[in-house]
Structures are given as C-alpha cells and as structure tokens.
Write the structure tokens for this entry.
Amino acid sequence: METIEQLIERLNPMQKKAVLTTEGPLLLLAGAGSGKTRVLTHRIAYLIEKGVRPFNILAITFTNKAAREMKERVAAITEKGDEVWVSTFHSTCVKLLRREIDKIGYSNRFSIYDSDDSERLIKLVLKELNIDDKRFPPRNILSEIGNSKDNLISAEEYADNAINGDFFKKTYARIYTEYQNKLRENNALDFDDLIFMTVELFRKCPEILEKYQDRFKYIMVDEYQDTNASQYQLIKLLSAKHHNLCVVGDDDQSIYGWRGADIKNILNFENDFKNTSVIKLEQNYRSTNVILDAANEVIKHNYTRKDKKLWTDVDGGDKIIYCQCYNDFKEAEYVCEQIKKGVEKGKKYQDFAILYRNNSLSRIMEEILIRQGIPYRLFGGTRFYDRKEIRDILGYLKAINNPNDDLPIRRIINVPKRGIGDTSIGRVSQYAIDKNMSFYEALSNVENIDTLSPKAKKSISDFVRLIEDLRNCAETMSASEILDKILAVTLYIEELRIERTEQANGRIENIHELLNKAAQFEDQNPDDASVSAFLEDVALVADVDAFTEDQDTTVLMTLHS
C-alpha cells in the first residue's frame, strides 16, 4: 500500500493544498467533477497520519450512500479509517440524541416519525381541535412547521410571533403547539426535530456541547451549499471551540432552496468564521471541454456566486444534443429511440439516465419505455418503506419499541381485522381525553369504558395482551426474530394469501424482502441488531441510497434526486 505522502503527491496543486490545510476554518469551493471526495478522504487520512485520533474526526455528508463510500475509501488508504465518524446530518444527530436526549426530558427510546406518520398525527390534531382540513391541508401545515424548525423557531416562539398575526397564522400556531405536545406525549421526534432538538440540547446543556466539541476537534461538511439554518447552527456550535472546520461545496450547485437550504451559508462563510482559508478546485476530471464551456456560459449569468471557472486538460468531446419535441409522447419516443440506438452500438441500458423536473413527469416516459421493451428503474416513486404492508409490519415494531407512542398503536389496532371498528376506537379516544391519559393507557383500562360493548372490550383486551407479549419477547430477540414472531401471531401473510390476487402476492414478496433487509441488517450490525437500531436504520434511509450500478437498467429520477 502506498503511503499517504505518496498519494498526496499525485494530487493536483489545489487538491494538495486543500489536504495539507488542516488547521482553522477552510472553505473548499469544489466545482463539479473536481475530485472533492478524493480530497476529503486524503485529508482525513493525512490527519490520522499526523497523529489525530480517528475518534476526534467528524465528516458529514448528505446521503447515507455518500457516507458509506467515503468511509470505505478512507479505510482503503489508512488502517484506522473505519474508526472515523462519517454520517449524514440526521444520522449524526440521532446518535447524539440516543445518548443525551434524556437531558431535555425525552426518553432515549424515542420514535422517529416519517412524513406519513407526521401527516397522520396532524390529522388527529385537526380533528381534536375541530379545524377543517380542507382550509388547513395537513401537508401545508407540515411544510410550515418544517420550515419553522429548519429556522429553529419553536412552537412557543411561533405562537408569540402569531399574536398580532391574522386568523391563519394564529390557527397554524395552535396546530403547531398541539402537534409538538402530542409528539412529546408519544416520546417521538419528526424528521425536522432531529437537528432542531440537537441544537436545543447543545444550547440548554453547555456541558454536553463541550463534551462533543472536545470529541470532534476536526469537522468536515460536504455539500455545504445545501445546508439550512439549523444545520448551519449545529456546525457553528460544534466547531466553536477548536475552529478546525472544513466545508466543501459549490454555490453553483445549490438546488435545495425550495427545501430550506440557504445559499448565504456558503457565500458568507468567510464573514461567519474568522481567518478562513479559501481554496478553489476548478480542474474537472469528469466532463469534456464542450460540456464545461456550455456550463460556464450558462452559470456565469447568476448574480450571487463565487467567482470560479471549471476547466479540463482533455480537449474536445461530443456536441450537446438539443431536441425540442412536439409533445410529451414524442419526447418520450425520441428519448427511447436514442437509448435503443446506443444499445445497438454496444452501450448498455445502465449507461443511460433520464432526468426530469418532478416525479409526475415520469408517467409517459415509463409508458413508452415499457412499450419499447427498455428495462428501467424509477427513483422517487412509492418508496419501499411507504407501502401499506411494510408500514403495517413496521407499525408493530414501533409499537413494541416505544410504549409511549400511540400513533403505531392506532394504525395496527385492527390490522389484520380483529373486530375493533372506528366507533370503538372513537370511544376509547374520548375516554383517553376525558381521563387525560394516552390512547394505549385507555386501551389497557378498557374494562372501565362503559360505552364499549362486551365484544369490543374482549377484542381490545386480546390486542393489548398481544402487544405486551411481543414487548416481552423483544427484550431478548433481534429485529428479524421479532418480525418472524409478529407474522406468526398476527397471521398477516395468511390474510393476504386468502385474497388470491397478484397484488396480494406482491405484498407478500415485499414482506419477505423486509425480512431479508432485517437479516442483512443483523449481519452488518452484529453488536446491535435490536428493534430500536433497526427502526433507526429504516427511518434514515433515502430513496437514492438504494441506487447501485450493478443492474443493466436505465435510471429515471428527478434532478434533485
């Protein structure tokens, strides 16, 4: 194996400078295809060779896939590379919160709500507050709450700001407040809470902040142009003691403004962090001169950007093809025609990608691809973990893992059907409100609910006993073992087999795939294959993380994916 010094000598001058600049704030402006991952991995390896403990290095990426690749590449060039903490913002925060969230009043076994869970909770809040979901659509509410959390505005601050606001603002404040109350009652965090609560933890507990400042003496952040206010604040707090912060990004590649990303974070970096070194990576190793010249001509018209110009020492390149089609069907046919011509000349289907602005534009493209017999994979459609049967089985896991979380209990109480209808659920809910207790506590006190029939009481008692038995089993079982147990006692797959439809068979296959996923998770995490760890892994997975290049299929995805 080559030494790190030998590897560094093979970098270009700017890359080499970036690797060797280890102390103090560093803004690394890395154009597309300029070798930024190589620089980051070599930088980490160089720090370790200098005597920095891997334990003291934190590298943050935007996807789990990027984190895995970076960790593998670091491990390939230095023996201690796999000891470096490399993960996404959200994974980093989950790890911190699992250890420390009890300091701000939560249990360490908190649930993580995805968008579907959050939407169901919002609907419950609207129902209890008697607010019309047509005037206040749940998705709009969640967008407003998410934006607030991204900007570190708590429910209390939002309510204070809404005092002099209009009717809608005041209503949003009521919903946001009650939504947070229910999350806390359920010992749950939504996705936006993961960073928000970590910042709150650091602000409320200076001793915890200092503990992690001393842990992470060297911090690197990839894709810095796409950070939002809460991510910026998190990084600022963590790096405030040692100041060894390296951020890598390109303002010309900022694409997440619609999702809260603030381009000012990268544009104002030198003002926010004193004595910043700025290094530009402008040599491109990925594209031809033709593409770079076109890209430079387009991007130079942006008003707010750092001055840089990508270049390559590889001359020439195929011309860019531009085709304006009569309609969307003709466009799809043209694209398929280009793919088929390429395959006839020796290319593979996996050499082609079809990119579009949003997911709705994929329908006609898929239709023509199928008609033309072109194999493809779609990213950004219905995610595996969003399918009903998967959400149902995961609902059982969530109910087992967090006794305080009522949301999964509501989902699975009559799945598969066990004679507990909406009327009975409504009566239990009302009893819980009247007695100021959780929904599950009310279920456990079903004998005291006079409005329920004896039959309903028995069905509910059986359900509570089932959940308690599963919870007891989970204490000694791994995630895959408890999944097998759930399927055995609920007869979920047997219910699907009775349907005898292709759709039901597909759902059974999906459940088996979930079991495979759990088994794979155990193999990869022998030290902790618990239900809690498995649910955490599932909650943080992104659609694009599943992308592999070993299938000969054309890829369809949005530009943002």
